[in-house]
Q: What sequence folds into this?
């Protein structure tokens, strides 16, 4: 019994030694895995290095197997090599994913300087700066200020565009086509059509006065007696009325022909002008309530 009890006292010590040995072997096994994947990267076999670290750190999917590289000291190193290999393959976004995972766990992580080229180290430092700014809040305010300024500029642009559309909607253009036939009418009609109102008034007054004088002298001539008591005076009046009639008729013809020629020379095929558009009427809705012998009626009416 004493000997047996002595054996039992040694079992915890033996178990502890065995556990330490297993742990050391596991660590040695993970170091070997890391070294194997690292060697693939150094040899330039970047595709195989990526596949090796992905399987070791994240596990395989087909067939499914758990991760074999879990040592906290080796995992970030492996991810660093994984990201560098991705950059060699042109997968900068995938490299950033690995760098960010490393930096989220340890913002002060330093990659091995001897196995990574300058471009990889610079890219990693840029990700470190962005991660530090994200963690400390540095740079976020500037980004928000820039986004706010851009939003204000966009709002100002939209307001200006809306004002322009509003001004355009309040007015509309009216185009009036002119006619050569109307331009051939005397009394300044052609000038009024072209918008030359001052010239049109001049021709209108001149032609009306000349035509009125011609008509008046004609009536005067017709009222002279055929058998006057004083033939000499009648002959003088007839001669004067004829002369004034000829002069006024010629003046009318001069103004009429000149006005028509002027209207055709200055003819404008069309004329455009802006007119204000009447605002649309808004719909008016109001309730209706009526008392009927059998009860009541409630409804709404709308006017458009």
A:
């Amino acid at each position: 019994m004493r000997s047996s009890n002595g054996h039992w006292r040694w079992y915890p010590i033996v178990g502890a030694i065995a556990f330490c040995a297993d742990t050391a072997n596991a660590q040695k096994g993970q170091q070997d895995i890391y070294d194997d994947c690292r060697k693939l990267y150094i040899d330039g076999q970047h595709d195989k290095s990526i596949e090796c670290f992905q399987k070791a750190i994240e596990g395989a999917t087909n067939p499914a197997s758990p991760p074999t590289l879990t040592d906290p000291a080796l995992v970030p190193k492996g991810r660093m090599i994984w990201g560098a290999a991705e950059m060699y393959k042109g997968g900068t976004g995938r490299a950033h994913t690995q760098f960010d995972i490393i930096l989220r766990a340890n913002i002060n992580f330093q990659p091995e300087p001897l196995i990574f080229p300058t471009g990889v180290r610079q890219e990693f430092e840029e990700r470190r700066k962005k991660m530090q700014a994200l963690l400390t809040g540095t740079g976020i305010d500037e980004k928000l200020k820039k986004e706010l300024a851009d939003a204000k500029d966009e709002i100002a642009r939209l307001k200006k565009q809306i004002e322009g559309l509003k001004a355009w909607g309040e007015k509309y253009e009216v185009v009036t086509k002119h006619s050569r036939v109307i331009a051939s009418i005397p009394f300044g009609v052609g000038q009024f059509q072209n918008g030359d109102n001052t010239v049109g008034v001049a021709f209108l007054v001149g032609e009306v006065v000349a035509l009125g004088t011609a008509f008046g002298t004609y009536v005067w001539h017709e009222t002279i007696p055929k058998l006057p008591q004083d033939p000499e005076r009648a002959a003088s009046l007839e001669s004067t009325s004829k002369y004034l009639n000829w002069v006024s008729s010629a003046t009318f013809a001069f103004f009429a022909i000149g006005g028509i020629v002027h209207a055709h020379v200055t003819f404008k095929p069309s004329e455009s002008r802006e007119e204000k558009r009447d605002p649309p009427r808004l719909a008016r809705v109001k309730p209706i309530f009526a008392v009927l012998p059998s009860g009541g009626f409630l409804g709404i009416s709308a006017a458009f």
User: Anything to note?
Assistant: Residues 10-26 have pLDDT under 50 and may be disordered. The chain has ten helices and six strands. Residues 2-138 form one domain. Residues 2-42 form the longest helix (41 residues).
